[in-house]
Amino acid sequence: DGGITQSPKYLFRKEGQNVTLSCEQNLNHDAMYWYRQDPGQGLRLIYYSQIVNDFQKGDIAEGYSVSREKKESFPLTVTSAQKNPTAFYLCASSPRVTNEKLFFGSGTQLSVL
Amino acid sequence: QKEVEQNSGPLSVPEGAIASLNCTYSDRGSQSFFWYRQYSGKSPELIMFIYSNGDKEDGRFTAQLNKASQYVSLLIRDSQPSDSATYLCAVTNTNAGKSTFGDGTTLTVKP
After folding, report:
1. Best of A37, A102, A108, A111 to disrupt the B interface by mutation (most B CBs within 10 Å)?
2. Is the peptide bond before B10 cis (omega within 30 degrees of 0)?
3. Considering CB atoms only, which of A31, A35, A42 is closest to B102?
4. Which residue of chain A has the CA closest to B86?
5. CB A21 within 8 A of CB A6
6. Alpha-carbon distance A104 to A33, whole Å?
7. Among the listed ranges B8-12, B80-84, B93-97, which one has the minimum average pLDDT value?
8. For A68-79, what is each residue's pLDDT tens digit?
């Protein structure tokens, strides 16, 4: 089945620790995105990538980093510089750069220990 | 002012009624408009999209777009309890290559 796989489903971070969230898609989509969702709020864009080996900062990129070494993969690292990382993280993809119909993974809930 | 604003909820309607969800946006260069449904604890799923002024119908759902007023809405006819969810409005300026989301409106359909 085609889709977007995020892992893990739940993740706990200790203070000062970097953690990496995985996102893999087998839809052959060009564009991939990372969003953060806080309770009762909409989605805020962290980073996006329109092509392999290239990515752009979104609205709230501070404290996060990404890579796009393969078309299928777009991992997100939450660094220790992100002081308030507790949130629901959603990875999404779209078929073309200009086609913004987003297909979402199942999400990762990140909490701080 | 937020780039995308949705009518504050929660919105409660009886089963069988019409639910009306509204969204306004500030970027006049926006070209594509989307409605996503998100059940509690789950990821959003696309239910409607519209690119041109007017109405677009798909089953019980109708999306309406008025670019002059910078307004997009979603009507759900014959609302069912299974429609109870948060509805997110997303607006895209294709030149920017990304979507901006509203905060969502939570809909409850009471049996």
Report:
1. A102
2. yes
3. A42
4. A40
5. yes
6. 9
7. B93-97
8. 999 999 999 999
